[in-house]
Specification:
Four copies of one chain form a homotetramer. By secondary structure, chain A is of the alpha/beta class. Chain A has seven helices and twelve strands. In chain A, the strands form two sheets. A nine-stranded mixed beta sheet of chain A has the order 1-3-6-7-2-8-12-9-10, sandwiched between helices. The first copy, chain A, has a two-stranded antiparallel ribbon with strand order 4-5. In chain A, strand 6 (about 70-75) and strand 7 (about 85-90) form a beta hairpin. The longest helix of chain A is centred in the middle third of the chain and has 17 residues, at about 95-110. At the A-B interface, strand 3, strand 4 and strand 5 of A face helix 2, helix 3, strand 11 and helix 4 of B. Strand 4 (about 55-60) of chain C pairs antiparallel with strand 11 of chain D, so a sheet runs across the interface.
Amino acid sequence: MVCTIEIYEKPQLKDPILIEGLPGIGFVANIAARHLINELKAKRFAEIVSASFQDFAATTESGGFSSPVNELYYWKREDGGRDLIIWYGNSQALTTFGQYELCGKVLDIVLELGCRSMVSIGGFKKDEVQPIPFIYSAATDQESLQEALDLGTKIMVGHIFGIAGLLIGLGGLKGFRGFALLVETLGMYPDANATRHALATLGKYLNLTIDTSKLEAAADETKRTLESFGLIRNIVEEKKKEEEQMRWFI
Amino acid sequence: MVCTIEIYEKPQLKDPILIEGLPGIGFVANIAARHLINELKAKRFAEIVSASFQDFAATTESGGFSSPVNELYYWKREDGGRDLIIWYGNSQALTTFGQYELCGKVLDIVLELGCRSMVSIGGFKKDEVQPIPFIYSAATDQESLQEALDLGTKIMVGHIFGIAGLLIGLGGLKGFRGFALLVETLGMYPDANATRHALATLGKYLNLTIDTSKLEAAADETKRTLESFGLIRNIVEEKKKEEEQMRWFI
Amino acid sequence: MVCTIEIYEKPQLKDPILIEGLPGIGFVANIAARHLINELKAKRFAEIVSASFQDFAATTESGGFSSPVNELYYWKREDGGRDLIIWYGNSQALTTFGQYELCGKVLDIVLELGCRSMVSIGGFKKDEVQPIPFIYSAATDQESLQEALDLGTKIMVGHIFGIAGLLIGLGGLKGFRGFALLVETLGMYPDANATRHALATLGKYLNLTIDTSKLEAAADETKRTLESFGLIRNIVEEKKKEEEQMRWFI
Amino acid sequence: MVCTIEIYEKPQLKDPILIEGLPGIGFVANIAARHLINELKAKRFAEIVSASFQDFAATTESGGFSSPVNELYYWKREDGGRDLIIWYGNSQALTTFGQYELCGKVLDIVLELGCRSMVSIGGFKKDEVQPIPFIYSAATDQESLQEALDLGTKIMVGHIFGIAGLLIGLGGLKGFRGFALLVETLGMYPDANATRHALATLGKYLNLTIDTSKLEAAADETKRTLESFGLIRNIVEEKKKEEEQMRWFI
């Protein structure tokens, strides 16, 4: 199987932009994607289960359950702007191999919907964070980098691990153009403040006003989901390991 | 190869229910499935060998041998009730990746036979067990959960690892409906008593009287098979490791 | 790729028997296969390279090189007996998954040539060995077991790891019939004496007189090949690890 | 996906020779390939991303980024000699399995372009190196070995790990002919001097004058790329581990 994909609908989209929002440092991308889906009432059109996810299900007191899954949502914009595809999920793949497979599959799906642009959001772990956190960027090409810098970001120097890094590399190879927005965060907890600033920058790029008054709710929802998965603990441990290797995980 | 599948027969079945019975905590599912196959004289129609099983064969004093395999059995019910498919085996896959592959293959096979419902049975490891052990449930959807609660079960809260957890997640994605029955067990040995109560609850759901007078024989058979595989020792060790991680394995 | 297979010829064979001869405990199978190929002037018709082999090449003082490979040879018998297919190689796969893939591929190739029978040869590690070493057997079915017992073998009780164990399990599932001949060996070095007795028993079964006067040469050739691969050291280490686990590797 | 391949052009080539130049001991192959691409103005016609590469991107102060990738370049020779295909990259695969996949894919691509010959370049780690370093060779066959010896090389005795070793084994199986040129190096840093001698020998074979006045620039470029990837540190550690195992990595 490798990846089991259920596509519920093939939406007609206008030059759509892919927004990546899987769990990572500070859970910035994950909170941002959850909030965008909630605010924009984005519609789920695909579910993806990878054989490289963890093999378990988590149940809750209300009798609900969740198991590792990635989802794609679309939002049709009615003010003439470009449509959005939001890649949301409660898991990245467990292995490097699985990460490539997953990223490759998602890119193939959105390519078919005419998508050639992408933005990934992430946290950039710092030991100290500015009151208004800096936002760093990396891009597939100089033109995209300039677009990101024009939003007030700085050039990121270092390693981008995980899906956010893959998207730039693998996406670039498949003809996508775009950039990563990496916001400073202590990275130890779901960071709603960092997410607010990342969303403000994203909104500027999309020319879209994003109401963040309910952002704390999305952060809490994200926290609950990831806690039930044991992911918050895991990523903290992961980070420790990586610090020893002097790397940054996004 | 990934999975080598031999299908000996494609039975015509009436709205069949898949019963999962692979080895796990307390070996409850495995004993239950073995007993059902024995009692109902269910017929084997498929064998599955996964490249993610262990690469060995175990031989016995009578010259017989067994190697890691999963099997599918069917039972045609003659009293108007729904037919059964029983998923039996002496092994789960060694890797997360293999578990997904195996579960995906079995779901694909039974989907083709018109199966859309499933029940998985498992042990829920407790340090202390009631004389009449509690049975917990988790379900793919609220309606299925209600069916399980109506049988006298409680809502399960926690993690369901292995095939039982995957069945809910991956099965749900593929359109299956059903629930897991998780019976309290100390989990240190093949637990015939826990299995008896799980079978009673399953029988109530299926509206089927299951004679459990020969259940000890099925438990002994299961114990012998798994001992020759070294699995009983392994799962005990596995459990220890997992306790440290504060997880439950079913 | 998984496995890259080059088939140089599709021989017409008369009810052929597959003889497995990969490196294992005491290198019994490997020496036996090498010797049979030399003596019978068996003809190589296929080469298999698996992505689960080690990724290296070993060079020798004469400028030759060898890299991990498996080979299939055939021998057409002219006295009315059944033809042989000999599975020879300098490597088993590094992973369980690779072992299943490799074994599955070889069985598929020989199935196409009409092969339904197999004999695997192996060493059975003992701390003490009889002057005339005992030979143990395990079989895919009772009839094959009886054939092996009629050759003067004893029933093997325990675990058969690696390709020899897989052949019985996976081969049985694919409709093959046959047995494993497991000869006592200290297992610490290429054991020409154990191989001589294994070949005598195999010869009895095949009704074939095998001249073993040049067996030491085949043992030396095997030793040189495996030493240049570092395999002899590795298997000794492997064995130590397995002794701790109270298992036998063949 | 396993490997994502983008082929930008299918050049018509005259009996081309594949030159392998991935990072390894002393980075000799990598510097040599980079220099040849620069000097010959070779044209990139394919990019390959393997799911067995590391899942990250590295960004630089100028806002550029690089992620693990392999590339194929061609050079059409106008003096009547044979054309070249240069296999360049910033990564080998992380796993043995991935190395086989990658090597198999590249061989398949160049086979389609009519390529049947190959030369791999590598470092041969020594504790002491001659002022004019010795060059060792290993070959797919005796005729190719003689060609290499005629260039003034010595016979290599030992293990060739990684892509250079695979090329000989897997390439030989697929019908390629060629040899590896392994130049003495301390192997602790990108070794421009060793590379210069390797290129001189390669030039003699190709009957091609290679201007190496800008070789230091290629070495610096290689060093910067690999440092940004953390590869220089990694290979040094890798080497330590391998020394303990008494192996050579190329």
